[in-house]
Amino acid sequence: MDGNKRNPARRHPYRGKKAFGTNATPRQNVASSAQSPGIPRVATPPLTAPVPVDTPRFADLAKGNLLHPELVKTITEDLKFDHMMPVQAATLHDLLANRIDCLAQAKTGTGKTIAFLLPAIQTMINKRRSAGSGVSLLVISPTRELALQIAKEAKSLLQRFPQYKVGVAIGGTNKNTEEKVILGGCDILIATPGRYKFISTIPEGEAQTHDRVPQHLITVPTFSDVTAGLVGSIKSEVKIEGAKNGILVATDVVARGMDFPGVTNVFQVGIPSDKESYIHRLGRTGRAGAEGRGTFIVAKCEEFFPRHILKEITFETTEADLSAKTEVVQITEKMDNQSRTYQAWLGYYKGHMKPMGFDSEELVNQANMYARGGLGSPDTPTINKTTVGKMGLKGTKGLNVVADPPRVSKGGRRGGGGGGGEGRSLGSGGQGSLSNQSSRGRGGAGRGGGRGGGGAGRGGAQREAQW
């Protein structure tokens, strides 16, 4: 069959199949012959667009072993496919060669089913799991009709692989029959949401933490007041006594996969990336029915987040205690990582300019005020030319741009440091010291700061937590 001249083209899986009865049309016989016990009949709509002639050919997938030779024969010889439909041409190669995730949208009848079934079946074959050993591919369909159609096309693609079985689980059918099909050896299962049972893996007492844990919202005038507001809140909350009580300062790393029992309060400083991150952070307190609370500290220009993003959460507004501001500035003035903190601030809030109503110049202006008022920096911290370019702030007024440091030669030092360090600021390495100014493992501006504890290099600011 010349697939290039057919206009409009017929539905892929059943074009070109021979009829088995003398008085039946090819399409009618295919519809009946492609069925198998356990999968009800379903009409397959025709393609709504002609098959193009300027897209890659299915036979090209045999190059580089992207697709199993028998699958290629099924496509080209049994189903008589030649050129790919646009959605197939746009996705198949990347799905097969690069194994990427893909979200595709196309009109009905343009070949989407083949576009996701072929890579999925190829992956199943690559895994070399024995047939009938369990479900290898699960397809979720929004409707019964589409589920049956997908199952029918899957069987057509697997006609040269009879060892693999296709099953369906949809509403309005006998559950016992479907269960027998699955338990009898189902490799590909196509189902509708109505056949799924929701299984919660969240331990009892942890669900909906944000609905039952008291949450306080503290708004400070500027970013320079955030740290002082945090200190004031902590002073009113706890009194540190030896090792029985303590404060953990950390990034989001503690919100996922780490458990600290007995956390009484989670202080969130600054806006998180999204609502889910806020809830994950809050979930460290009040666990398993225990008492706890949350405190969210934001600058005035960050109020959009609790007001709009977290509009379903009820906050108790708490007045900010900024009495510690002078003390905070006295401490930050002595810190020697002001430049990196300044750069980190710019990099993070660059992604939140629009909801805060900032343009690039206002972002830099806010960063400079934070550097002077919050970090105690007498001058605007320097920032490398390359870093400015990567941030998309090239040419923005107010930045103190300096030339990039010379690259260290291959035989020179690359931020020495101890071998067992954790990539903390300013090259602390060696034995895992938490000090910001450890003399052991201190290196130059190399690139080894992330792992072996070198200098203030590319990974030097990756400290995630300190007690």
From TrEMBL:
GO MF term set: ATP binding; hydrolase activity; RNA binding; RNA helicase activity
Catalytic activity: ATP + H2O = ADP + phosphate + H(+)
Keyword field contains Nucleotide-binding: yes
Ranges annotated as biased composition (Polar residues): 22-36
Keywords: ATP-binding, Helicase, Hydrolase, Nucleotide-binding, Nucleus, RNA-binding
Domain of life: Eukaryota
Region described as Disordered: 1-44, 396-467
Listed InterPro entries: DEAD/DEAH_box_helicase_dom (IPR011545), Helicase_ATP-bd (IPR014001), Helicase_C-like (IPR001650), P-loop_NTPase (IPR027417)
EC id: 3.6.4.13
Domain Helicase C-terminal: 176-336
Domain Helicase ATP-binding: 93-241
Keyword Lipoprotein: no
SMART domains: DEXDc, HELICc
Compositionally biased tracts (Basic residues): 7-18
Comp. bias (Gly residues): 414-432, 441-460
Family under the similarity heading: Belongs to the DEAD box helicase family.
Free-text note regarding domains: The Q motif is unique to and characteristic of the DEAD box family of RNA helicases and controls ATP binding and hydrolysis.
Role noted for this protein: RNA helicase.
Protein name (Swiss-Prot/TrEMBL): ATP-dependent RNA helicase
Species per Swiss-Prot/TrEMBL record: Glarea lozoyensis (strain ATCC 74030 / MF5533)
